[in-house]
Amino acid sequence: MSKRNPKILKIFLYMLLLNSLFLIIYFVFHSSSSSSSSSPEQPNPHISLVRFHVSVNNNQSAIQKPWPILPSYLPWTPPQRNLPTRSCEGYFGNGFTKRVDFLKPMIGGEGSWFRCFYSETLQSSICEGRNLRMVPDRIVMSRGGERLEEVMGRREEEELPEFRDGAFEVAEEVSSRLGFKRHRRIGGGGGNDVISRRLVNDELLNEYVQEGGIGRHTMRGLVASIRAVDSKDFVCEEWVEEPTLLITRFEYANLFHTVTDWYSAYVSSRVTGLPNRPHVVFVDGHCTTQLEETWTALFSGIRYAKNFTKPVCFRHAILSPLGYETALFKGLTGDIDCKGESAQNLWQNPDDKRTARISEFGEMIRAAFGFPVNRHRSSERPPSSSSSSVHNVLFVRREDYLAHPRHGGKVQSRLINEEEVFDSLHHWVASGSTGLTKCGINLVNGLFAHMSMKDQVRAIQDASVIIGAHGAGLTHIVSATPNTTIFEIISVEFQRPHFELIAKWKGLEYHAMHLANSRADPTAVIEKLKEIMKSLGC
């Protein structure tokens, strides 16, 4: 034994040195920010803002939440090598490598600038600008942020923004540019004549902010509305000093589509090197939903564009791509051949066919709600046993609920005998006849429509196995821990790859039961679950 001690000691010291080096590199990259980012005040961890501060002719700054430390985090700095167009990092990470400057900073660094980072892989852009002026009167849409009950029956067309010319403005010196035209300013500045030019023409829009089959590309419409005005006509009474994401949403009440919006916002924040979590302005007229709980947890504050009663200027604005332009959505119709891998393995052995970005994002959601992300789920002991562990088996249910102003309150059933299947599982567990000798089962009834978003995420992270019929609620598996098993029941009418792909991109074990119709055999479900539990060591 004494001969082995020096060898064991050397191995221990080597591992300690390796981990210390990894942490040093992590903190160096984590604390760095782009030259365009402002220098914020130190955030107060005890304060959480919902509506952020607007300063009036001053430099006051609102509290910004810091980024949490995430085990799956990898640096978002531009890659040191040319990424293959269809690499996993190109799809899920920093593939926005082509920088296009539409307005360069003035000499001395004052005034406005505007640029986009284009991804050849996703064929979309993350854009950002300094000193960007928004004129709410030139955005045609409903006010947004109302309670659902107040706007029942409102048409979707009323909620989506229509941008008039000059809905957004930047400042530049007239003498330095060509193409300026004199016109009469309407809304947000009186009726005086101003000189302006369109910042991004149709040719450049077609190249860097492509429609991509989206019938009404609202972010493209926003960029098309930006006008460059003479500096003397660029007057701001209200300023938002903190970095702010400008986001337009479509299917805002659907969890899957909202997760694509969250992911796009997260990626945009990282790619532009924000040192803290940004604020969010919804440039749409949708009413509030339960999902805003997670928006508020993820970012430093949220607000609706029409909440501003007069023109407002953003010191640093970031335009987040539509959720439809993320790999989470594009993977439904295209082959994104990526597999989940741990960040530590990818740091040591980069692999263009593997990714840790979805795991990183899931940890971000859990950390935003204050859940620990630096440890795996721990098994509990059942009250009747001193040796066996208990595994939570979460059954994600589909319930009727009122989703949006055009919704009747009824959800489409994907499993017509869902109640029967759950009751059979409950009886199987409660009767003690599972046949599993090495562990117990705690069956969790996932009635998500009646749970807060925080409680939903808690149920996901505590589950060893997640069962459910195909439905948006299963999108929560983005926040599942690395050793979670997914069991999806798929009816003949809903054979779509949403959750199989997410499981694959996270590296989770995935099982599917394909039905001949919309009815599942409860006995077959029990047998499949028993097989899964045995694979977990039960």
TrEMBL record:
InterPro entries: Glyco_transf_61_cat, Glycosyltransferase_61. Residues 369-486 form the Glycosyltransferase 61 catalytic domain. Pfam families: Glyco_transf_61. This is Beta-(1,2)-xylosyltransferase. The chain crosses the membrane at residues 12-29. It is found in: Golgi apparatus membrane. PANTHER family: INITIATOR BINDING DOMAIN-CONTAINING PROTEIN. Its main location: Golgi. It comes from the Eukaryota.
